[in-house]
Design goal:
The complex is a heterodimer of chains A (108) and B (123). Helix content of chain A is 0%, strand content 46%. Chain A is an all-beta fold and 108 residues long. In chain A, the strands form two sheets. In chain A, strands 1, 3, 4, 7, 8 and 9 form a six-stranded mixed β-sheet that branches. Chain A has a three-stranded antiparallel β-sheet with strand order 2-6-5, with no helix packed on it. In chain A, a hairpin with a 6-residue loop joins strand 3 (32-37) and strand 4 (44-47). Chain A is globular, with a radius of gyration of 13 Å. Helices cover 0% and strands 50% of the residues of chain B. Chain B has no helices and eleven strands. In chain B, strands 2, 4, 5, 6, 9, 10 and 11 form a seven-stranded mixed β-sheet that branches. In chain B, strands 1-3-8-7 form a four-stranded antiparallel β-sheet, with no helix packed on it. In chain B, a hairpin with a 5-residue loop joins strand 4 and strand 5 (45-51). Classes of the chains: A mainly beta (108), B mainly beta (123). Chain A binds chain B through residues 1, 30-31, 33, 35, 37, 42-45, 48-49, 54, 86, 88, 90, 92, 95-102, and chain B through 35, 37, 44-47, 50, 59, 61-62, 95, 100, 104-116.
Chain lengths: 108, 123
């Protein structure tokens, strides 16, 4: 089955840039989406189709996808960005939707 | 404003059944695929099942194939999930989510989520 691999945790200082990776076989040939989930809340879509932001999502969130790795970048990280982040893709061979295990972002 | 409101969760014994419902509003329900995504307490997200706008395409995760059944009633703007032969590992928050497309698609994502309903399977 298709798997997406994320680092368990990422730490970043306020105002700095956080990068969260998501790796999968030929992921660059698929579309990647990203979700933010804060404690006790439902997930929120923050990036879809690799690079697009839904309305209302701040511009400091951006995405890229190439080769085997999709990356979520948070520029000028704020304390409110502390959350779990999940990547997701569609595996046409199974066919199933797949999530990564999630990355906990800590703003120190 | 898109709203998705789940109901039907609760405590159930292993081997028993449960039916989850999701009431949708704020968008044209029969234009979009709908999905169930679950999250065990303290764990990550797992796609469970999805159904296309016209019910022609239905998919399930391997972990629930043959035990869970997804359905929708476009006249009632409602999504359902029938959970049979429940196991301890099915314990999770179950989220109703709206797809970004009418059917399964490579670009599809989940752009709105309900608040979730907790299913606890225990004797």
């Amino acid at each position: 089955s298709y798997e997406l691999t994320q680092p368990p945790s990422v730490s970043v200082s306020p105002g700095q840039t956080a990068s969260i990776t998501c790796s999968g076989d030929e992921l660059g040939h698929k579309y990647a989406s990203w979700y933010q989930q804060k404690p006790g809340q439902s997930p929120v879509l923050i990036i879809f189709e690799d690079t697009k932001r839904p309305s209302g999502i701040p511009e400091r969130f951006s995405g890229s996808n190439s080769g085997n790795t999709a990356t979520l970048t948070i520029s000028g990280t704020q304390a409110m960005d502390e959350a779990d982040y999940y990547c997701q893709a569609w595996d046409s061979s199974t066919p199933r939707y797949v999530f990564g295990a999630g990355t906990k972002v800590t703003v120190l | 404003e898109v709203q998705l409101v789940e109901s039907g969760g609760g405590l159930v014994q292993p081997g028993r059944s449960l039916r989850l419902s999701c009431a949708a509003s704020g968008f044209t329900f029969d234009d979009y695929a709908m999905h169930w995504v679950r999250q065990a307490p303290g764990k990550g997200l797992e796609w469970v099942s999805g159904i296309s706008w016209n019910r022609d395409i239905i998919g399930y995760a391997d972990s629930v194939q043959g035990r869970f059944t997804i359905s929708r009633d476009n006249a009632k703007n409602s999504l359902y999930l029938q959970l049979n032969s429940l196991r301890g590992e099915d314990t999770a928050f179950y989220y109703c989510t709206k797809g970004t497309h009418g059917a399964a698609a490579a670009a599809a994502a989940f752009d709105h989520w309900g608040q979730g309903t907790l299913v606890t399977v225990s004797s």
